[in-house]
């Protein structure tokens, strides 16, 4: 019981860290100056050193410039690498600036796409929904804000990408769980894939060192990500977990949060639809090409077909 309480405490600490802005060097703003005909112009840029999208809000003090090529505060979605935020024309005095960023995008509208089941085609599995931590340990009613799926598996089974995207996070250093009847374990091996609509798919319960997909790489739906861990210590046996979520934050809320860092934000989970599955229960997995191709460009489809014909 003490073990579960400690795990529960750690879980709520991790939620708090997620909800607050964390200071790091993942996003750094720089200012460049240019002078033409005695007119001083400034350009503000931000370097996103992560593999996923970030969103920044940048504020300036005073009005010591003639015009800006965007609204202030400036809110900008940042792709990996260097991104221009805003430029000021005919600056009389360099204004002080402040900024903050959040992981992901704001004002997200997720696409209605079909997801592949993240298990091998032809395999029969049992699909179920997972309970939230509040339901498991605190006896709370079912949370409508938490949506996560589990799929029964055998140790060493492959885990497959359900949707096209870029791998932006991964961890595979943890050993298989020990004991019996475990309902929750905080330290799991996982992969996070960012999709084109800025939602993120999280795949959990990989074997230690079992992730074969490369960090920062784009994967297609149906690509192998790695192997599942021996989960015989879990109450529901060996399985893999999958959820889709995004940052539930608007442009207006991000500007307000810069003014008051105590304001929090949360993940919004997405109720996805899987091909060949109509809800919890037994399902035979298929990976139809029309689902794999739904977010590919023509040249991607051509390359995919060529790679599988060799």
Question: What would you note in describing this structure?
Answer:
With 310 residues, the protein is α+β, with helices and mostly antiparallel strands. It has helices spanning 2-19, 133-138, 251-259, 289-292, 298-309; strands spanning 27-36, 39-48, 54-60, 65-68, 74-78, 81-91, 97-103, 114-115, 124-129, 149-152, 158-160, 165-171, 190-194, 200-204, 206-211, 218-219, 224-228, 239-248, 266-269, 273-274, 281-284. Strands 9, 10, 12, 13, 14, 16, 18, 19 and 21 form a nine-stranded antiparallel β-sheet that branches. The chain has a four-stranded antiparallel β-sheet with strand order 1-2-6-4, with no helix packed on it. Strands 5-3-7 form a three-stranded antiparallel β-sheet, with helices on one face.
What is the strand and helix layout of this fold?
Layout (H helix, E strand, L loop, with lengths): L1 H18 L7 E10 L2 E10 L5 E7 L4 E4 L5 E5 L2 E11 L5 E7 L10 E2 L8 E6 L3 H6 L10 E4 L5 E3 L4 E7 L18 E5 L5 E5 L1 E6 L6 E2 L4 E5 L10 E10 L2 H9 L6 E4 L3 E2 L6 E4 L4 H4 L5 H12 L1
Parallel strand pairs: 8-20
Antiparallel strand pairs: 1-2, 2-6, 3-5, 3-7, 4-6, 9-10, 9-21, 10-18, 11-17, 12-13, 12-16, 13-14, 14-18, 15-17, 18-19
Q: Beta fraction of the residues?
A: 35-45%
Broad shape: elongated
Spatial gap, N to C terminus? 54 Å
Helix content: 10-25%
Number of strands: 21
Radius of gyration: 23 Å
Along the chain, the helix and strand elements come as: HEEEEEEEEEHEEEEEEEEEHEEEHH
How many H/I helical runs?
5
**Poorly predicted ranges (pLDDT <50, ≥5 residues)?**
1-23
The largest β sheet comes out as:
9 strands, antiparallel
């Amino acid at each position: 019981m003490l073990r579960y309480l400690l795990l529960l405490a750690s879980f709520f600490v991790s939620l708090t860290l997620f909800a607050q802005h964390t200071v790091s060097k993942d996003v750094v703003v720089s200012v460049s100056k240019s002078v033409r005909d005695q007119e001083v112009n400034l350009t503000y840029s931000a370097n996103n050193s992560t593999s996923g999208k970030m969103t920044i809000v940048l504020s300036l003090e005073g009005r010591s410039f003639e015009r800006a090529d965007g609204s202030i505060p400036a809110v900008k979605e940042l792709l990996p690498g260097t991104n221009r935020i805003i430029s000021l024309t005919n600056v009389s005095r360099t204004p002080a600036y402040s900024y903050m960023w959040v992981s992901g995008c704001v004002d997200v509208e997720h696409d209605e796409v079909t997801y592949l089941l993240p298990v091998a085609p032809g395999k029969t599995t049992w699909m179920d929904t997972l309970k939230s931590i509040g339901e498991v340990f605190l006896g709370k009613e079912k949370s409508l804000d938490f949506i996560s799926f589990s799929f029964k598996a055998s140790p060493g089974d492959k885990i497959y990408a359900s949707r096209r995207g870029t791998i932006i996070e991964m961890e595979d250093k943890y050993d298989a769980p020990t004991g019996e009847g475990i309902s929750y374990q905080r330290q799991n091996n996982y992969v996070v894939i960012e999709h084109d609509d800025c939602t993120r798919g999280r795949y959990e319960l990989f074997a230690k060192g079992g992730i074969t997909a490369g960090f920062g790489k784009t994967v297609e739906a149906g690509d192998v990500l790695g192997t599942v861990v021996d989960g015989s210590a879990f109450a529901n046996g060996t399985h893999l977990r999958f959820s889709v979520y995004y940052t539930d934050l608007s442009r207006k809320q991000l500007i307000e949060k810069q003014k008051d860092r105590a304001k929090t934000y949360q993940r919004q989970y997405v109720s996805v639809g899987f091909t060949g599955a109509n809800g919890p229960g037994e399902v035979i997995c298929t990976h139809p090409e029309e689902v794999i191709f739904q977010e590919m460009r023509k040249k991607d489809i051509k390359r995919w077909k060529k790679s599988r014909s060799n």
